[in-house]
């Protein structure tokens, strides 16, 4: 049996999901939760991180896409009231145990994208190319 995904948006979808649960073999699992980020959102977000990595510095140095991702997700958590969870690391460094972007809801990911776009606008980072490439052009 292949993996099945049901978006619970109407009665028929709920009925089909219930039937799939009843027909599933022993040992299968069911998870019900909010829809997570879309592939398009993920692609846009990483394109934005890439633009920032090419055009911006932080604390006087260039950072990688992955380093900017950590900074933006951490900053977004603070800006939206989620806070930070700083703990001493295994080698006595400080680590922010941050939320996972892969587990963000569509709405949370939208908020993060808006946060990145606002930061870019405030810091003179042109994101036009990334937004065009992923079909998310915002009117000027």
From TrEMBL:
InterPro entries: NinB_sf, Recombinase_NinB. It comes from Castellaniella ginsengisoli. This is Recombination protein NinB. It holds the Pfam family NinB.
